[in-house]
Amino acid sequence: MTTTLDGKVALVTGGARGIGAGIALRLATDGADVAITYLRSADRAAAVVKEIEALGRRALAFPADSAEPDALREAVDRTAAELGRLDILVNNAAVFPVGALDEVDADERDRTIAVNVRGPYVAAQAAARHLGDGGRIISIGSNVGERAVFPGLALYAMSKTALAGLTRGLARELGPRGITVNLVNPGPTDTDANPAHGPNAGAVAGFTALGRYARPADIAATVAHLAAPEAAYVTGAVVNVDGGFTS
């Protein structure tokens, strides 16, 4: 059966768990060969690779700290070299700091900016050398970048808001080459790091219009659409997949 991403190759940073794993598996389901990066979750990365291979697709997993530019560039270049090309980059890896302004130390501040802001820029810069006409760069932001409803989220909100500027700037720069660049802002999503039945989940879900958490598959469906040929005229867009959190 022909699917929308047959013959394509994708790299998903932070693809071993949560939203990243959901995206990797959806892209593979739609026909792409997929590489992922991970930091500490080697066993989970191996499990995602096995699931992708069970779908009949090629899969790779690279250990890479998104705070380290050289590691990101190597992951991009290895994906293109070992899978033969690169068509889709999904900037998903992120850290989620929470703390009052006077509690966040310099190390946490600098790592958040390194992973959440510099990382997507470096990965996009490296990927742009490989992407051709029809290439896709899709970054994963956050509803918090649009609406920070609790205190202690200033650093995280700042880092995710920066992705909107990156997306719009890259869309202009890469558009003449037929490469689209978009940003997906998930709302509260049921993952290990943010379970739908966690201690604050009821309050968080209450901020959405739908009154519930998303599944990783809900976010992955939008990413898959933006990666597909049908979305060739969508670029520079910020798409909120947040259950109405920011409405």
TrEMBL record:
Residue span of the signal peptide, if any? none
**SMART domains, alphabetically?**
PKS_KR
Task: Tell me yes or no: is DNA-binding among this UniProt entry's keywords.
Answer: no
InterPro entries named in the record: KR_dom, NAD(P)-bd_dom_sf, Sc_DH/Rdtase_CS, SDR_fam
**Known PROSITE patterns for this protein?**
ADH_SHORT
- Stored Gene3D superfamilies: NAD(P)-binding Rossmann-like Domain
Query: Does the keyword Ligase feature in the UniProt annotation?
Result: no
Superkingdom assignment: Bacteria
Which UniProt keywords are present, listed alphabetically? Oxidoreductase
Q: Where is the Ketoreductase domain?
A: 8-207
Return the similarity comment.
Answer: Belongs to the short-chain dehydrogenases/reductases (SDR) family.
Q: Give the protein's recorded name.
A: SDR family oxidoreductase
Species per Swiss-Prot/TrEMBL record: Micromonospora globbae
